[in-house]
Write a structure and sequence with these properties.
108 residues; mainly alpha; 2 domains; rod-shaped; Septum formation initiator family protein; FtsL/DivIC; transmembrane; membrane; transmembrane helix
Length: 108
């Protein structure tokens, strides 16, 4: 009897309050369109939007590289810079700065 007279449980004697509380709990946790489900979907959408921007930037970079390689001079420049290719009458000198040389242990 004392439990029913508790001041904290008094609002729950009203049927409308009880139905509202049950409805809110149902919509937050159990429904297919629950708040948690929508929050999860919104997080996934944000991640996909970030990936979309990243891939757009990569496509733009690749299109620029394709455009550069579409000319004879661009192919020659890429071959010289990336693959150290040379013409028959040329010598290539690769200059490495002290900062770019990997440090080796003295024990080796």
């Amino acid at each position: 009897m004392k439990l029913l007279n508790n001041k904290y449980l008094k609002p729950f004697k009203n049927i409308y309050v009880l139905v509202l509380v049950v409805f809110i709990i149902w919509m937050l946790f159990f429904d297919a369109h629950s708040w948690f489900f929508h929050h999860e979907l919104n997080s996934e959408i944000e991640e996909l939007e970030y990936q979309k921007e990243h891939y757009k930037n990569e496509i733009a970079k690749d299109n620029k590289a394709i455009k550069e390689l579409s000319t004879e001079e661009g192919v020659e420049r890429a071959a010289r810079e990336n693959y150290y290719m040379k013409k028959d009458n040329e010598d290539i000198f690769i200059i490495e700065y002290q900062d770019s040389i990997a440090k080796k242990d003295n024990d080796e």
